[in-house]
Amino acid sequence: MNTPRHLAIIMDGNGRWAQSRGMARVKGHERGAETVRTITTFCANHPHIERLTLYAFSTENWKRPKLEVEFLMKLLERWLKNELEVYLAHDVRFEAIGDLSRFSPQLQRTIREVEEATSPCKGLVQSLALNYGSRDEVVRALRRMVERHDPIDEAHLLQALDVAMEVDLLIRTGGDQRLSNFMLLQAAYAELFFTPTLWPDFSTDELQSILTSFETVERRFGGI
Ligand code: FPP
Asked: Which CATH architecture describes the domain 6-10+37-193?
């Protein structure tokens, strides 16, 4: 029976969720943030999931209208501050991945504070991908390897990435079937699940049914 240690999710469909209800797209992000909490808490109580990596803001998302980007930044700041209590209550260690240098000094400070405050937590690791793109991650990893005079091999490359752990199961909500520059190296042998459910509607029941299907998949890792 397969049990995922590392679950990664592309949270798509917030804008459509809101628009289909006659609301502004940003309202979908607000509801999406609630789903982040529900799914994180579920994973924190799951016996096998050790890491949950969530795609919250990609290196390409800066192309969105300025107001939406500003809203997302404010939402993130507010959300992280509120979420600290929830992380601590569920023993979740928060970690931001991606190139944080483009965020405001205030947001970077909040991110560091929540990382530090949750650093003693020993349960689930929630890695939130912020200004993240796999190609950018590889470039940053290669720079680090050159600086450290690391040998150029697969093991050292994986170690130099923002997330050194292979993804076992990758889910994308919102109906599109693509990876959008997310966890490209870590997901080399991941099982992929695509669901039409929009992220704000994604439930623990649906996640549980995906986990149940994953249990019976035969993972061969290139063997026979
Ligand atoms: C995709 O929906 C979602 C995003 C680009 C951002 C993800 C953000 C959240 C889940 C909420 C904020 C998160 C935290 C942790 C506070 P979309 O806007 O691309 O939806 P669409 O495909 O329907 O347009």
From this structure: 3-Layer(aba) Sandwich (3.40)
pTM comes to 0.96
| Alpha helices, DSSP H, located in 131-219 | 134-147, 154-160, 204-215
Distance 193 CA to ligand 1 centre (A): 18
Strand-strand pairing, 191-194 and 169-172:
parallel
Residues 17-42: tens digit of each pLDDT:
999 999 999 999 999 999 999 999 99
Tokens standing for 139? 């470039």
Domain layout of the chain by residue ranges: 6-10+37-193
C-alpha 155 to ligand 1 mean position (Å): 32
The residue ranges of the chain whose pLDDT is under 70 are none
